[in-house]
Design a protein that fits this description.
Distance between the termini: 44 Å
Structural class: alpha/beta
Strand content: 15-25%
Radius of gyration: 31 Å
Helix content: 40-55%
Number of helices: 24
Shape: elongated
């Protein structure tokens, strides 16, 4: 068993006197000794002998027991087998306690990353009147087990297990737990699983077979807007009594208001607008370029403000030209049809150029901009300076259909489901991420891995079905944009919303099976096809997505370390591998068509030469790593 840093310090500190080493040497040579025996042999005072023996026992070098000898009780100390090796090699094997670390990253009930402050937790418990020695003992044990990425449910279960080891004062501590938000008991999706006889799914979530993202609020995780409906009806379609926008400035205000209003009915902070420059184009026909640029600047700063204040993470999908299937789509100003989108292609282009100008000058974390390329000619229309700041959506491959819009790399909606209109007005209901390396420990070979995967997918399907029931039962009767219909239109088609099967650790799974993923993708393709085929006949809109969320990758690795002895500290996200850019493109194009729920080809650099290679490939979404970083 590895010794942690705290244990090593404790043992070395207990050997701070030569007399203590003499005591250990005496007992090792002659066997168990009493306090009096040691006192006489080493010529020490009784108090010193008593103190040193107890310190050595506390440090784990000695153990003692009471025996009767000559009608009197006698306490005999004997040696506990030990070995202390201090070398460069042995120090590498010591587990650090991260001394002084009191703050960790916690995944809360809504799958959001929040800071867990153990010092603050200790203060809350102490203020409740709980005995200090119990609180400090519990948190001391908790600190040895807690890690960055731990979930609220895991933390609660760990906390309860530690409390059960204590014998006194537990009632007050447990009662206090309920006043701490991220530890309190709530009715949630896992509770519903238990009630429906699916408690095994909840346990598998806790044990790390998979991660159920949406277990808290009964709302969708993300939403893809159709801003043309707000231009047609005004904000009335989402429950705000305003008339349709007549001017460029009011259209921008409605855009930002829509994101803010819809956020109230989402469990996460992710929203996206598709065809944005096309829908806004009719408002700028008679404006100067400076007025257009100022309006675009306002859009960018307004969404950045929503991110910094409300946490709303917005993605804007922009078109480089009017696609064929949108040319006859109505254009709206003031709630009236003013032609079709093809009539305003030049204005849409001018809005796009204004976005480029603002992007060259400003460094904002949000909104994220996605440029949708539909042919190779569009490469020449893009300034090179902005390519490392945007995401590139490659819509040239046939598998991308008429339209695919991206909510960054978190979610993808395409027109394969009921045509282009259903790539808008849709939500992400649930994401369940599979711990792919766990399949190896359950199956041990390729056949066993695929069989274990089939079993997990059955559980995932049950979970998806119940997620929709959970959401609809909670929403029914509430005034939410998700159910509202205005005249002939609905802003959200809930029945067309998407369920996502996330994947983590494809590379780690292949390594366990002795396969180098960057060279051999045959089993990976088989796994992705199996997932897609499994849900084809269910009638649900299901996509497969790469999950790169740090806490999930860390949690899966930690769980496998505890349960199966895995040595990985963190797993790779999705299909991630380390390759040079050109090799990465060739690798990703084999797998992106199967990852129909979301994917990302992360490259070290992005220029027009690289962009041309992307558009000549089957890669779906790509970006420079720089675009993923905070400015």
């Amino acid at each position: 068993m590895k010794m942690n840093l705290g244990e090593l310090v404790k043992k070395l500190k207990s050997l701070d006197r030569v007399e203590k080493l003499m005591i250990l040497e005496l007992i090792a040579r002659e066997g168990a000794k009493s306090i009096t025996d040691v006192k006489k042999r080493l010529k020490l005072s009784f108090s010193t002998t008593y103190k040193y023996l107890n310190e050595l026992e506390k440090a784990g070098f000695l153990t003692s027991k009471e025996v009767m000898e000559g009608g009197r009780k006698k306490r005999l100390f004997s040696l506990v087998p030990f070995k202390i090796e201090l070398s460069q090699k042995s120090l590498r094997g010591i587990e650090s306690l991260e001394k002084g670390k009191k703050k960790y990253w916690l995944v809360d009930w809504e799958s959001k990353l929040v800071e867990l402050d153990l010092q603050e937790l200790e203060n809350v418990l102490l203020r409740s009147g709980a005995p200090g020695w119990i609180v400090r003992n519990v948190l001391r044990k908790l600190k040895k087990e807690v890690y960055d990425g731990i979930t609220s449910l895991e933390l609660r279960r760990l906390f309860m297990n530690i409390l059960k080891e204590e014998e006194e004062g537990l009632k007050r501590v447990i009662e206090c737990m309920e006043s701490v938000d991220f530890l309190s008991r709530r009715r949630n999706f896992l509770t519903l699983l238990e009630e429906k006889g699916l408690g095994e799914i909840a346990r598998h979530h806790l044990d790390g077979d998979y991660h159920i993202r949406n277990i808290g609020k009964p709302y969708p995780l993300g939403f893809q807007h159709d801003f043309s409906l707000i231009l047609k009806h005004g904000l009335r379609i989402i429950g705000i009594e305003t008339r349709p926008a007549k001017y460029w400035t009011s259209a921008i205000s409605h855009l930002v208001d829509a994101a803010q209003a819809v956020q109230k009915d989402l469990a996460d902070f992710k929203q996206s607008f598709d065809y944005l420059n096309l829908f806004l184009a009719p408002f700028v026909r008679d404006l100067t370029h400076e007025e257009i640029r100022q309006g675009v600047e306002r859009i960018m700063y307004s969404f950045y403000k929503l991110f910094t204040i409300n946490g709303i993470q917005t993605t804007l999908n922009l078109e480089l030209s009017v696609p064929k299937h949108m040319k006859s789509y109505p254009a709206w100003v003031g709630g009236k049809e003013v032609g079709t989108l093809s009539d305003f292609e030049a204005e849409a282009r001018e809005i796009l150029e204004a976005f480029f100008e603002v992007l060259e000058r400003e460094k904002l974390q949000y909104p994220k901009l996605i440029l949708k390329f539909r042919n190779l000619k569009e490469i020449d229309e893009i300034p090179s300076k902005i390519l490392d700041k945007v995401y590139v959506a490659n819509l040239t491959p046939r598998w991308q259909r008429d339209n695919a819009n991206y909510l960054r790399d978190w979610c993808r909606f395409d027109s394969a489901w009921k045509g282009p209109k259903r790539s808008l007005r849709t939500a992400e209901i649930q994401m369940i991420t599979l711990n792919l390396p766990r399949l190896y420990y359950l199956g041990r070979d390729e056949k066993g891995v695929l069989e274990a995967l089939r079993e997990k997918l059955e559980e995932v399907e049950k979970c998806f079905s119940l997620s929709m029931v959970y959401l609809q039962s909670e929403l029914f009767g509430k005034k939410t944009f998700l159910l509202r219909k205005y005249k002939e239109d609905k802003y959200c088609h809930l029945d067309d919303s998407i369920f996502l099967v996330g994947i983590v650790g494809m590379k780690d799974l292949m390594e366990n099976l002795g396969i180098k993923l960057s060279e051999d993708q045959s089993l990976a393709i088989k796994i992705l096809k199996l997932i897609r085929e499994r849900f084809k006949e269910t009638g649900m809109r299901v996509g497969i997505i790469e999950n790169n969320f740090f806490p999930v990758k860390r949690r899966f690795a930690k769980q496998d370390s505890l349960s199966f002895g895995s040595r990985k500290r963190i797993y790779k996200g999705g299909i991630e591998v380390e390759l040079a850019d050109e090799e990465k493109i060739k690798y990703c194009e084999k797998l992106h068509p199967l990852l129909n729920g979301g994917h990302m080809c992360k490259l070290r650099k992005m220029n027009k030469q690289i962009l041309r290679k992307i558009l000549n490939s089957n890669v779906g979404l790509a970006c420079c790593e720089k675009a993923l970083l905070k400015p």
